Amino acid sequence: MLIVNPFATATSPAGRDALAHTLSAHFHLDVELTTHRGHAFELAARAAAEDFDTVIVHGGDGSVNEAANGLLDPPSRSDPDRGRPALAVIPGGSANVFARTLGIDPDPLLATQQIITLLDAGESRRIGLGHTDDRWFLFNTGMGMDAVVVHAMEDKRHAGKTATPARYLWTTITSFLKQSGSSATFDVEIPGRDRIIGARFGFVSNTSPWTYLGPREIRTNPDTGFHTGLGVFVATSTGVLRNLPLATKLLSQADPKARHLFRDDDVDEVCFHAEAPIDVQMDGDYIGAFRDIRFRHRRDALTVIAPPISIPETTT
Question: Which residue ranges does the record assign to the DAGKc domain (predicted)?
């Protein structure tokens, strides 16, 4: 099944027709266009129920997240031994973080050929996913600053403005300056660790990189990957002077360290607790404001059509 979001930023009717024609020349293909939010979830769930071999999503990260959640049962009752269709991605959004992290070509037509080659060769791999009690995430979730940015960007898209790297950067800067005077904080709990008090923003990553500034990779948790647990990146300050050196390290891909920063690249569980609801985003979609939210990791949760990766050897 090919699920296409016709409203995604980088899709066009001609491009969609070309990649659908190319795929249908190689495989029996059911093409479905999404018409509303949540439709990719519904279509992927149908594909799982009807025993499709593979679901290919041509759209942005939001559509891919919906499809992944449709392919899998909710985390609270997921059966890891139950067969599910594999997930493949042809980039169609503005960021395409998940596809880029998997090693999929950013050009949709080249990505289509890449997916065909991988399917013909039987290439697939299992990846771990992060989740709350009722929802899976593919690459990142967060409370505080990044969720504020995502919320602001969604408002701008609804107002008819295109999501571009420059607009994301400007929205991030202005949101950061606005939030620097905010008193909203939350605490962070990781089993076996001291409680982190007064966090201002926190990222929970399922892989790295999970964010980009145009073509530049930003790695908040360099050692986190689909083969590890979750990465946690929590800052207890939004002060500009304290965060400028940290931002410089992130932009230069140096090891991100700071006195006001807690970082761990491999945990199985993390909980955020706030006195008042704070914005939360998941895979680049704003999901609401929460006081308490828990994130866990599930290894080998999803089969993806993607190039193989070399996992660094560990020494003991």
Answer: 1-136
